[in-house]
Amino acid sequence: MPRTKAKPTKVKDSQKKSVDGVSWQAQKSAMTRDRILDAALHSFINLGYTNVTTAKVASEAGVSRGAMLHHFPAKTALIQAAIEYLHSKLLADYTEKVDRIPADLTGTARRRAGVDAYWEHLSGDLFTAYHELSVASRTDPELLDIIQESVAKFESHVAETNSSLFAEWEGHGERYTLAMDLTKFLMEGMVMGQIANDRKARINRLLDYLMDRLEEIFDEDDDSAISRHVNG
């Protein structure tokens, strides 16, 4: 009599092995949550903040309405989690780009590498999502409250990184503050500006010009034009 082949036993999620002490079910839940948050960021970029709904995010993420409600029962909870997720990714992205700067670079070459790393960071989709939320927060007090704390944490990290990239300049009081503000606001304006023709060449020219102005801030004496804008 021929032997019947045993049917494979289906392993339930709850029976799958854990990794680093975390059950498979918990891992699966975390992956679903991250997929929803990634979909939220893509929706901010592609649809604009005011057009984003939990239903649209669920569709973008490929999850059921029930799964969405399980993780984020209200849009406010989704927005808050998405902003925290966005800023964690912004931190990781900026840190990764700065860490690629060769350790043996010094002086002007290291400072220019830092500016280039910041430009690369600003040019990505993550900053586009951040900018969309920042603009929307100007007329949305609830969103503004959510975003301000995360922004403060990110800017603190950038300031700490800059103190290493621009170590020779850090102890120059208001000149240092002026240099960092010039870099931040000029470059953020550049990335959001609509430059249609010869974009690459024009961006490189602006970055070259920025570097010249930064060097001038610290090279000029107390009788210079710069001294009218700073106290030290």
TrEMBL record:
This is HTH-type transcriptional regulator BetI. Keywords: DNA-binding. It comes from the Bacteria. Residues 53-72 bind DNA. Residues 30-90 form the HTH tetR-type domain. It comes from Sinobacterium norvegicum. It holds the Pfam family TetR_N. The gene is betI_5.
